[in-house]
Amino acid sequence: MDKQYIIRGVQRSSFRKFIAWMIPWAGLLIFGVYAIYLCLAKGLNQTNMDNRFAFGVWIFLDLTVIALGAGAFFTGFLLYILKKKELHAVINSAVVIGFICYSGAVGVLMVDVGQPLRAWFTFWHPNVHSMLTEVTFCITCYLTVLAIEYVPVILKNRKLREIPSMLVFEHELHKLVFVLAAVGTFLSFFHQGSLGGLYGVLRGRPFAFREGIAIWPSTFFLFILSAAAVGPSFILLTTWLVSKISKKRLVKKNVLMLLGKISGALLIVYVLLKTIDTLVWINSTSPAVGFPAYEFYSRKPFGTWILFTEIVVFGLLPALVLLSGRMRAHVGLLVTAAAFACTGVALNRFVMTIQTLALPTLPFDPFLSYMPSWQEVGAFLAVIAYGVLVYSLSFRYLVLFPQERELSNG
Amino acid sequence: MTAQKNSRYGMVIDLDACTGCGACMVACAVENNIPPAPESANERTGITWMRVYKVLNGKSFPDTQAVFVPMMCQQCEHHTPCISVCPQKAVELDEESGIVAQIPVRCLGCRYCMTACPYHARYFNWWDPVWPKGMEQTLNPDVAPRMRGVVEKCNFCHGRLQAAKAKAAAEGRIEIRPEEYQPACSDACPTNAIVFGDLNDEQSEVSRMAHQKDSFRLLETLGSEPKVYFQSERPWVHHIAEQDFASPEKETVHG
Amino acid sequence: MDKISRRALLKFAGGSVVGFLFSPMPWKLLDDTAKWSQNWSWIPKPPQGAITIKYNTCTLCQAGCGVRVRCVGDRPVALTGVHDHPISFGAMCPAGIVGHHLPYHPARVTQPLKLTEHAGSVDQYPLQPDELMNDLAKVIGEAHSSGTSVVFVDGQPNRYVSQLYRQLIDSLPNGIYAVSPHGDAVSAALQTMSERPSGMLGYDLEHARTIINFRAPLMDGWGTPGRIGQIIKQQKKVGVSERLKIIHVETRYSRAAAMSDEWIPVNPGADVFFALGLAHVIVREKLYASAVRKTADFDDAGISFVKFVREFSPDVVAPVTGISADKITRTTRELARHTPAVVVGGTMSDEEAMVLAQLNLLLGSVGKTGGVVARRSLPEIMTDRRERSAAKTIAQIPDGSVHLLIVDESAAAAIPWQILEKKLASEKSVVVSIASHLVGQTKCANYVVPSPTYLESLRDVHSPEGSVFASLSVSSPLIKVPAGVIEPASFLQKLAAAAGVPASPSISSPEDLLKKHVDALYRSRRGHVFVYANKETVDISKIESSEQLWKLLVDGGVWIDTSAEPAQRLLFFGHRKENYARMKTFIEERKQSAGKRTGGFPLALMPFRACGDVGEISPLMTKLYQESGLRAMSNRAMINPGTGAMFNLIDGAPAIVSTQKGKMKVDVRFDESVMPSVLFVSAGPDKACFNHSTAAKEENILLLCECDTDSLHCATPANIQKA
């Protein structure tokens, strides 16, 4: 039915099957949009956030999604700036994933703030000292970059290529791609860092507060590094997942292994720096403001196990697997290690957001708990459904994996 | 024309005199047009610029002792945690009075400042402000009610400072007299446990009391230089300012 | 004309979009949406108007605090204390600070209602005043023919207007004027011990060195908040050794206990034995004031106080009270050493109060500076003997004898419903509540008569609880009474008329009555007046006329007596022979019941409530009850964490409390200060005070408790389990 729109040379499932796949996701999206409507129309009382837990599951997942979406900028950086030609096989997919992650996160943020209509005040009355200003500027700019990067991918669609002016436009845009990659890399570095800085500057929250270099706390650099490390892992993971679901070979194995290797190399550096940072924090930063660090881990359920799990189980372990050429060659291990690395970053963002807020600051404060409401979960499910829908459409009608044609014919 | 000296308004709260009656809390709500809570609000979603915490000494019956600790924005002066984090300058430190001001109409409700505040003195409007029908007749004409989705907090009844300044100006003065400017809470306290004044004025009661050896501040080690001091003759009460007072076994707060 | 192609149309649309983006329109729209968010039409705008200051006196309780009212265009917007006020010292309680919200309360009643209960909710049917009167006239007729009575229960009987109520009720056939137990039980007990009962008594706390307080909420509604505030403030200024010491005796670690120097946590219901233990040690160690020996029944052959307390040695009372013998002895010696010492009590039974009164007598504090002093009575204008005789208390009304029960708002708030219900003759008996708000027990009534609320009518306030000098102030209306609201006196007049009783001759209105009293006061030439507006004290001799005195009071002033009454001679058991026997029986009963636990009910359930917890309060009090944990909303249960764990409870989770009377859902909070095996449940404000729906039936823990009078101190055997 939609044959004429599908890329030449690749097999796609029947239109009926495709619709059957899309319907449940569309249903989830509608449910999520209803949850979002409730939050916008009735106010944030629809969430289970409160004055003590002023950030909740939204911020935690936004940070995670943005870290995982870092694959887009980092792959672009590796491909266009460092000339890692193999990555051409996944760059389009990475751009789409990046676009989904960033637009989804920005969408949720607009629900998360109490007065979305005033969000643009940040551009008009920016407080240059605020990490959130940096985040806002960089994310909006980078989202624009991603949108521009997405356009040539769309323009490569079979039908659109029939229009000559579109072809010219695409060609012109393509010339820009190096500039965009450079700008994207710069912006991404900054906002990944600022997101880390968001917590590192919290003087009133000794669990999160970190000393820094120049105006940036250490979390600034750790967030950049961790995002850069798991970005390729997430591309690896999604490529593998799409390949499994679509039952197609999409990229050559060496591409996946290269992604894993890059991820592993960065992850090991991250784990090392994170360990140093943690030791400095435990022994100097935290006690200096009157908070012995062991206190933070004496409150159930957040014992020292969480620190161990984050750094060793989901950090060091996948890093070592990804760095070992032999283990990397085993797809099962490669994918598991990538999943572990992504989990590690998610756990880090969870700790920074949720544990920070659960811990008391005043000596007579209680330890707090928080459980998101269905509206909060629903709003986030909308982002996931939106992501799956956009990706599925892109996968069906656009060239996300240039090697696919070659692999399916050969 | 002489340059006017900057003030540093602050408080000393005598914890031995506070009976935990809550008069300050409602007086604050009346003055600042804070609405009554909707049905589903609770201790963590309500708005209490001024909140009295009941803090126990952590001992079991019959050795339990309690102290009532009135808490509001501590008006941090140095590295004010909430100011630097606001992305759009909705929080400002007024150099002239030392008051940390919140500008609700500029606030986008990101709540970053709330996570930054170690005193939990900031409150978000989770609901639209609603007064029972007719009760809006009792609103204070000097303070605008805030809208849903913004953060608010104690500002030492800043409106009263403006009124006092206007009154002084009308009488040809620049300086205001101490008794002309008192926030609603210190005004309402039946035991005068809340002493308010200019910490820069060495003659003031508040500056004298702040320097007494019984005085302490909460979370002093964070280095944010709060301008609210507490006082007690009871040694254990001083421990509430120390981190080792807190331990996971002691879930001691009811507030 | 050329055909418009699809491409041209698309081009046009695309061009329009690009053009629009480069026009100022999007920016203008963006700006407008932000401005809109700053000016939402549903955010109330505070009404403006001319700002004026008026002065008044708070009538929400007996304290009578001076109030400075900030008005905007005649509407009160803020109530603050009157500085230098001789009774309230510029202080106010939280309920008083938001008292001006009461006229606008969502539970406000502005027309007569008939209430029916249906499936856990209360249905309201508005009535015309005539319909109400006709219904009630019929009920009065039924009472007359069946020989049952018509009873009016007054919750604030010491107001002058109460005399008017009494006159009107007494004129009805079978009409009985009753009062709810009120005020200070210890003071009432001291009166029964004196030769000639006189006015109430006061406590000279300002000059005492030791106060031993049995459950009185000293920092929580006793006297005036300002008076206690003054005492606390003064204490800070003197050296530690000269300071007043407050010893607080109560099972619960209340706010008063927390603010005391020492807390003595007696077992539930065992306070009286602790007091008897103190009395025993005083007698044994001869620590009593020397004059006491001369008291006729101190150590007489017949009725002997010495004999009465002999059996209550510290060793005997220690296990009952849970306080060690050593502690009892030491506390007694301290009391005797640091005189003047005064014994104060909260709401309690007459017998318990008598033991405390006896302690005061033993300590020699009666009639002494720093002790218990007699207040002079205000001049009376009612000369009818029947009107001057003591009114019946609700306890004195036989159960099952009332066909029409009229309860005023404060009585409805204070007396547990099951006590009132027991008085009713049959299922068909009718309860009428005279109330301004449909909250709390008012919802249990069959009819509601809408009455004016605070700041809406002329009211008088007399000497606060425990005050040394008599005082009087008058609150004048500041807010217009809504149409449909009926002044209680005029309701009772109409009721009498409907029942066919000729109109009362002497007094026509509350104002008339108050003016007559003020006139009598003026003519007595006693005391002085503190004027709120200029903070001046005017001696009564300087006041030119009774009209001027009236004006001073109505515009914001308080009249205060200048001297107290001389001390009276007291007997330990008074002049009524049966007192001794009554005390003996009471003690025996208490001995039986103290510490008794029934099989299935291993916990001692003790309800508690603080000043302002009953009746109507401003919705803004959610700050204290709902938005912070400072005060407990109704049905919040406090339990020791250890006991809670034993019963598998979770802190903050709901649970079910059961007693022999039934079950009720509570909300559990663990609290280290709670005595193990005791369950404190707040009998606090009805949720209708805060929520916008008033329909839900009131579920108060008192309904599960064994209440005798209005006392809240009885422990009821209870059980608790996870909900």
Question: How far apart are the termini of chain B?
Answer: 49 Å
By CATH, the topology of chain B is: Alpha-Beta Plaits
Radius of gyration based on Cα positions of chain B: 18 Å
Number of alpha- plus pi-helical segments of chain A: 15
Tell me, briefly, the overall form of chain A: globular
Strand content of chain B: 15-25%
**Rounded average pLDDT of chain A:** 91
Helix residue percentage of chain B: 10-25%
Helix/sheet category of chain B = alpha+beta
In oligomeric terms, what are we looking at? Answer: heterotrimer
Written overview of the protein:
- With 410 residues, chain A is mainly α.
- Helices cover 72% and strands 1% of the residues of chain A.
- Chain A has one domain.
- Chain A has helices at residues 15-42, 57-68, 70-81, 88-112, 121-124, 131-155, 164-200, 218-246, 253-288, 293-296, 304-323, 325-328, 331-358, 374-397, 403-409, and strands at 212-213, 216-217.
- The longest helix of chain A has 37 residues, at 164-200.
- In chain A, 50% of the residues are buried.
- With 255 residues, chain B is of the alpha+beta class.
- Chain B has helices at residues 23-31, 81-85, 112-116, 158-170, 184-188, 205-210, 235-238, and strands at 9-14, 51-56, 66-71, 91-93, 100-102, 122-124, 151-153, 194-198, 215-216, 228-231, 253-254.
- Chain C is an alpha/beta fold and 723 residues long.
- Among the domains of chain C are: 51-104, N-terminal domain of TfIIb (Single Sheet); 107-182 and 397-456 and 492-500, Rossmann fold, CATH 3.40.50; 201-374, Dimethylsulfoxide Reductase, domain 2 (3-Layer(aba) Sandwich), CATH 3.40.228; 595-722, Barwin-like endoglucanases (Beta Barrel).
- Chain C is built from 22 helices and 28 strands.
- Chain C has an 8-stranded mixed β-sheet with strand order 5-4-17-16-15-6-7-14. A 6-stranded mixed beta barrel of chain C has the order 23-27-24-26-25-28. A 5-stranded antiparallel β-sheet of chain C has the order 18-19-22-20-21, covered by helices on one side.
- Chain C is globular, with a radius of gyration of 29 Å.
- The chains are: A mainly alpha (410), B alpha+beta (255), C alpha/beta (723).
- The A-C interface holds A 115, 117-118, 120-121 and C 30, 33-34, 36-37.
